[in-house]
Amino acid sequence: MTTKLSLGNLGAIAPAVAKPSYARGDLSPGIVHVGVGNFHRAHQAIYLHKLFETGRDLDWAIIGAGVKHYDAAMRGKLEPQDWLTTVVELDPKGFSARITGAMIDFAAVDPAALVELMARPEIRIVSLTVTEGGYYMDADTGGFDAGHPEIAADAKDPDEPRTVFGIIIAALMKRRVAGTPPFTVMSCDNLPENGHVARNAVLGLARLRGDDSAAWISEHVAFPCGMVDCITPATGPREIAIVAEKFGIDDAAPVVCEPFRQWVLEDNFPQGRPALETVGVEFVDDVAPYELMKLRILNGGHATIAYPSGLMDIHYVHEAMENQLVTGFLDKLQHDEIMPTVPEIPGVSREDYYRMCVERFSNSAVGDTISRLCLDGSNRQPKFILPTVRARISQGVAVDGLALESALWCRYCYAETDSGKAIPPNDPNWDRLTAQSKMARDNPAAWLAMKEIYGDLGENEAFAQRFEHWLNALWRDGTAGTLKKYLARG
């Protein structure tokens, strides 16, 4: 027997489930958040929920928003339950559930209405989780893609915007005319220098308008960078069943996540901000060192375990962490090559951070999959692995394990595991990657010739030689045999 989630039914939900202690009627909006997906509801919305539980800053509630068809679908799921969400933390020691109410409305998926909403004076922050692909980045340069058809359409008709950045610009210009101070644009997406990326997208489109909007935005609008972290699986039948069977709640769009979350933010909010430091958010002058630590140790660690596990037909991440060859590879590569490239942060232990990552990877309750970690390697490798390779090369030190990691990715893109099972496409450039991998079986240099990924690294003799050595070993000895040889090197 389950209870349909809604404000009116909160009293009927089991006492074991934490419910909002604040009255929803006491909240008023201060944030418009674009992209009401699982990560937002497991991360930013949780921090605000916790803040409201203390009785503070009740004028910073969220109005959800979106511009895509799936945003309309999410709105349709959340509206009947009064915008409430059940968040279940998957701690192996015992699951816990809370109902969060930090979002008090969800705007209609209508660009004109969204411009009007963002132009309201009480909105002081517009935040985003629109995924890396939502920032219109050029695949080759990493900069803003001014030629994207959606951007071109907004540039041609700026008064009828369709992209989130066109809508943001239109709202900012409306505030400018009205004499209303501009809101802060806060990216909450998991990508390097997310504030700079958001700024580049807004300014890139504004420059195409042919007016002075780009100059005004550059001078007056803040785009703080932030580092965000919380493993949040997609919601499927398994997750809905957990919420229904363990907690008796009928939630159309519940969220499950690990019990860990982190948020480090540059303190750059000219129109004010909620006191999130009271509920665990770290405000710093420079996010870059924290971001670098996460990118190299956590994200680089995920990449390290992903491809050998995929080649050995390991399904779940926690199962990979039970395999001594995988964990041995992770531990040796981290300590020998990755962690030494991460600068010290006062008061933060790299070793403690790494051990925490290992604990998180080992969480069997999350059910994170190796196939998810293997996704989109052509975008992830240049962000999570290859900068570390370059840092090591610049220092004149070994890249042996990093070359093996790259060889494992190449071997994985052959689209066949060691046992002969087919690996389904999992990258926007899968066909090209597979073709290059097949050529690299006899000519390893063919893989490193992908300059859009490796740049000039293929011309570095030290890296290229070790890559060739390990790729040949993978074809000769298999993944397990190759890892044993790597670990035996001491």
From TrEMBL:
Give UniProt keywords alphabetically: Oxidoreductase
Q: Which residues form the Mannitol dehydrogenase C-terminal domain?
A: 286-475
The terms under GO molecular function for this entry are: oxidoreductase activity, acting on the CH-OH group of donors, NAD or NADP as acceptor
Superkingdom: Bacteria
Record bears the keyword Methyltransferase = no
Give the Mannitol dehydrogenase N-terminal domain ranges. 30-277
Transmembrane: present as a keyword of the record? no
Enumerate the InterPro entries for this protein.
6-PGluconate_DH-like_C_sf, 6PGD_dom2, Mannitol_DH, Mannitol_DH/Oxidoreductase, Mannitol_DH_C, Mannitol_DH_N, NAD(P)-bd_dom_sf
Query: Which Pfam families does the UniProt record give?
Result: Mannitol_dh, Mannitol_dh_C
What name appears for this protein in its UniProt entry? Mannitol dehydrogenase family protein
Provide the species name: Oricola cellulosilytica
Taxonomic lineage per UniProt? Bacteria, Pseudomonadati, Pseudomonadota, Alphaproteobacteria, Hyphomicrobiales
